[in-house]
Design brief:
This is Hemerythrin-like domain-containing protein. It comes from Botrimarina hoheduenensis. It holds the Pfam family Hemerythrin. The chain is an all-alpha fold. The mean pLDDT is 84. It has one domain.
């Protein structure tokens, strides 16, 4: 069972590394303060980076859900089923945040100073939520893979 979980986690790990790079690019767009660049261009770059991030994030979450990744953790560690359940709930919450955020960036007023500022705050909140989720997931995976079930010594 650990071998199956380890194999699943390795497959997801590559996708997560790619996601981390896209997430960092999105952070650059959120923090980008370039007065000589138009707000429309800054907003367009933010929207582009957000869409790329959301596609990669959805791909990672889909792998985790469809690859029985969460189920394997719950089977290996029945005592952690509630934590696995919380990770699934976090996926739903993150998807909801994205569903609310993306259309706002398509509105014509999205590039006005105050709207762009609010969009940056919303994207940063999304990134913070994803970071929290990642920490919870990594901690659970490490505990599962490093768990010792007794034995000698």
């Amino acid at each position: 069972m650990i071998a199956d979980l380890n194999s699943s986690s390795m497959g997801v790990a590559g996708e997560q590394r790619l996601l981390a790079r896209v997430k960092e690019a999105l952070r650059v767009m959120v923090e980008w303060q370039a007065p000589t660049i138009s707000q429309e261009r800054q907003g367009s770059s933010l929207r582009f980076a957000l869409r790329s991030f959301c596609r990669h994030l959805e791909r990672v979450m889909a792998f985790e859900e469809s690859d029985d990744y969460f189920d394997k953790i719950a089977q290996e560690r029945p005592d952690c089923q509630s934590r696995v359940g919380r990770l699934r709930v976090e996926h739903s919450r993150i998807r909801q945040q994205i569903a609310e955020l993306e259309p706002k960036l398509d509105e014509p007023a999205a590039w006005q100073a105050e709207s762009l500022k609010l969009s940056r705050v919303a994207v940063k909140q999304l990134l913070d939520e994803v970071d929290r989720h990642d920490r919870h997931e990594v901690r659970l995976l490490q505990e599962t893979l490093l768990r010792e079930d007794g034995g000698e010594g």
